[in-house]
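Review form for a predicted model. The reviewer records the input and the model, then writes brief findings.
Reviewer: anonymous (R2)
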Amino acid sequence: MTNTTNTASTTSATKPSFAPSHSDAELVNQPVGYWSSAAGQAVVHHIRTMLAEEGLTQPQWWVLNQVPADGSARDRAAVVGVLRGYLEFGEGGIEHNIEALLRRKLLTQETEGGVRKLRLTDAGGELRTRVAERQQQTRAEIHEGIDDAEYVRALKVLQRMIYNVDGAAWHH
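Model under review:
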C-alpha cells in the first residue's frame, strides 16, 4: 500500500516549535558567514531533494524554466547566458544539463538560420507544470512563519553585507 499522506503537514505536526538558537543579545555576536551558509545549504538541499523526487537536477529545472511554456522556442545561447551565473554550475554545467534534457526528450532542439533553439516537448511541459506546483509548496515550507516584510528585510541585509565586502552576487 502506498502512503499518500502529505509529508509537509506530517513533518510540521511532528516538529517542535521553532525557537532561536540564542537570545537576541547573543545572536548579535553570531557569525553571519556561518548562519548564511547554513541557511543556504539547508534550503538548497530541501529544494534539490524535491527536484530529485521529480527526476530533475536543479540546473535542469532552471533550464526548463527558461524555455517558453507556450510552445515557442528560445535561443539556446540566451538560455545559457541567463543561467551561466547561477551558483557553481557555470556555462559548461548548464550545457551538460541541456544535453541531458534533450536525451530525456523533455526538450527538442532545432536550428533556425544558424541559431540553435530549444523548445519544450509535451512531456517537458507536463513535468515543468507539475514541478512548478511542487516548487510553490516547497517555497511555502521554507517561508513558514516568515512574512514577506521579514523575508525582504533579510535579503536586503544579506545584499548589503555582500556590498560592504565588495562581493558580487547575481540573480535575475
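Findings: The mean pLDDT is 87.
Further findings: The first strand starts at residue 74 and ends at 75.
Recommendation: see findings above.
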